Amino acid sequence: MREKNGKNLSDPFDSKGALLYDARLMQKVKMPVTIDPVKAAQKRSDYEGIMPLVNLTRLTESLLDKQGEVTVRVECGTDQQGLTVIQGGASCEVSVTCERCGEAMTVSLDCNFAYTPVKPDDDAALELIPERYDVIEKDEHGEINLRQLVEDELILALPLFPMHDEAVCAVSASSMSFGDIGPEPEKPNPFAVLAELKKK
């Protein structure tokens, strides 16, 4: 925590007394597909921009409409442990099917993330990474796929069984009750594997 103008500020990066946004490069542009996290961290670069939903093909498989944009912000830096950190958030509104009435509904997706990049199969590095960070693998060029990172986070933010509030849903919960037919078989979660990978 640091204080400036009487306010406490939380800064995970080792900025040597500088504020998180001091001497940073703020770019309000279309987000890049990939970035070099080490170079971006050395420059303490920030990115703020958009990703078209239509480019997130795995996410849009679950949506009714592929139109729209995701607002993304990413901050790159180095923490007190010397680890390269990519942190930020993404938000958007998407159209999905209500599981109760079958009609379209709008869902707001909002996620925050903090990653540190690693080389593939670098088990020694993995043991030193704090639990507060997820890991993301660098490719052969030392870059990470920023689009894939954001898409993974938004997929995890999707509700498994989206439903309107009962007050505005075309079908009420009570009208769907036709006696006790036993528990419904649990549906497999297509993103369960992704969630498990994030825990590792």
TrEMBL record:
InterPro entries: YceD (IPR003772), YceD_bac (IPR039255). The keyword Acetylation does not apply. Keywords: Ribosome biogenesis. The keyword Protein transport does not apply. It comes from the Bacteria. Plays a role in synthesis, processing and/or stability of 23S rRNA. Belongs to the DUF177 domain family. PANTHER family: LARGE RIBOSOMAL RNA SUBUNIT ACCUMULATION PROTEIN YCED. This is Large ribosomal RNA subunit accumulation protein YceD. It comes from Rheinheimera aquimaris. The gene is yceD.
